[in-house]
Amino acid sequence: MKTSRTLLALAACALAAVSIGAQAVGLDVAGIVAAYPDVFAAIGMLALAGEIKDVDPEAITRELKRIGDEVKSAGELALKEAKNAGALSAETKGKVDELLVKQGELQARLQEVEQKADRRGTQGDAEIKSIGAQFIESEGYKSWHSGGGMKTSRDAYAFSVKAITSDAASAGDGVAPNLLPGVQASPMRRMTVRQLLTPGRTESNVIQYLQETGFTNAAATVAENVRKPESAITYDLKNANVVTIAHFIKATKQILDDFAQLQSQIDGRLRYGLELAEEAQLLNGSGVGNNILGIRTGATAYVAPIVVAGATRIDILRLALLQAELAEYPSTGIVLHPSDWAAIELLKDTTGAYIFANPQSLAQPGLWGRPVVTTPAMTADEFLVGAFQLGAQVFDREQANVVVATQNEDDFVKNMITIRGEERLAMALYRPEAFVKGDLTPP
Predict the structure, then answer these.
(1) pLDDT at 315 over 90
(2) How would you label 72-106 residue by residue, b for 16+ Cβ within 10 Å and e otherwise?
């Protein structure tokens, strides 16, 4: 029994040495455990009993040599006895052979581990502890051992070995992120209002036009040698000032040099910002100060030209078209908020069939023979109809452009670059009565 404990203890020391070297050079400790399950089970029992304390590599080497000599002597003695007895059981011979093979493998692995550990010993002074040493020195084991250790199988103490993980405190900093090329930009609104208007250009800072404000038509049949009736027309001189829409972004020279795509991305976003502000001005500009008089702002308020009992949203839009038509300006389009148009498209009859929409159709949105233009710039639950090409015209003085400069404020000394986007334009609202605005929900 004493010899068995000694052999197991020495084998434990040898495998502990393998564990030390394996951790130092990165070998698979789990693979060694799988190769020698019985020996490691003995190591665990001896550790729990307090047999394994400290590990001395030189002592391990001496003891391993002594184990080898004893194993060899035991094998030779067994063979000699078997020869004298005339036979040796296959089981005894197999065990001796297996012990010799494992002892040889262990010596080879220990030698390889020591050589690799010696080569890497100069790479750091940090102490590398074996699994056994970590087990013995753990606070959990010390507390468990001071309490009496294992009395039954249920009192066993479990010890987990720390693994290399992707945590930043472990090896996580060594994992490089997969950076996708380009910039994932925010979505951009589709601009629609300008496409409804007649385009034009100007080289001045103001657009002036005469607007007819009154017409008294006295035309009638007359008799011979009788004074003809006199009609009257009044005009008013209107001014549409050219306004400037602009904004800028600052960036360092270094980032634009190192990230070439960034400048083109900034260029696109600056132009989009101009278009976004332009659409808001063309539709809802107040006309006060440095603001365009927007179409919806100057449009005529809706007054139902005829009475329709229980009028729906669709009825109100038709009556607004009629109001513009009676003003001699047949409407060419309808502007709605996207949610209002969706509510109209989803209307169904008593059988559940869509009234105006076909989910499988690719046709452009339209109602009462006019195209429907949707834009979030339009206030929800309101509408605008009108003769857009006849009633208004947009004039470009300076189309949208992006300019880069380094001599602004203290940009030069700070290596900063100012990127400016700018445009200048005006809009003439020729006939306010050509447009009709109002609430979409029936009163």
Answers:
(1) yes
(2) eeebeebeeeeeeeeeeeeeeeeebeebeebbeeb
- In the chain, which residues fall in CATH 3.30.2400.10? 193-439
289: which 2 tokens? Answer: 């100060």
- Give the torsion through C-alpha atoms of 321, 323, 329, 334, to 10 deg: -30
At the fourth CATH level, the homologous superfamily of domain 193-439 is Major capsid protein gp5 (3.30.2400.10)
Q: What 8-state DSSP symbol labels residue 55?
A: -
Q: Which of 70, 66, 40 is nearest to 52 (CA)?
A: 40
Q: Which residues contact 420 (CB under 8 A, 6 or more apart)?
A: 246, 247, 248, 270, 402, 403, 404, 405
Question: In angstroms, how far is CA 410 from the centroid of its own chain?
Answer: 35
State which amino acid sits at residue 52: I
What's the token pair of residue 191? 């601009």
Name the DSSP class of 86.
T
Evaluate if residue 7 carries a pLDDT over 50: no
Residue corresponding to tokens 């949208």: 400
pLDDT category of residue 24 using cuts at 50, 70 and 90: very low
If you compute the radius of gyration of the chain from its CA atoms, what whole number of angstroms results?
46
Closest CA to 193 of 377, 437, 398, 367: 377
Separation CA 246–CA 258 (nearest Å):
27
Residue 371 structure tokens: 């195209």
- The answer to whether residues 370 and 419 touch, using CB atoms and an 8 Å cutoff, is no
The arithmetic mean of pLDDT across residues 290-306, rounded, is 93
The torsion region of residue 265 among left (phi > 0), alpha (psi -120 to 50) and beta comes to alpha
3-state secondary structure of 377: coil
* Average pLDDT of the residues of the chain: 77
Q: How far apart are CA 30 and CA 27, in angstroms?
A: 9
Report DSSP letters for 297-366, one per residue: HHSEEP--SS--TT--HHHHHHHHHHHHHHTT----EEEE-HHHHHHHHT-B-TTS-BSS--TT--PPPE
List all residues 6 or more positions away from 275 whose beta carbon is below 8 Å from its beta carbon.
Answer: 191, 400
The burial of 215, by beta-carbon neighbours within 10 Å (0-12 exposed, 13-18 middle, 19 or more buried), is given as exposed
- Assess contact for 386 and 203: CB atoms under 8 A: no
For residues 311 and 318, what is the distance between their CA atoms, to the nearest angstrom? 10
Tokens found for residue 388: 């857009």
Question: Among residues of the chain, what percentage have pLDDT more than 90?
Answer: 36
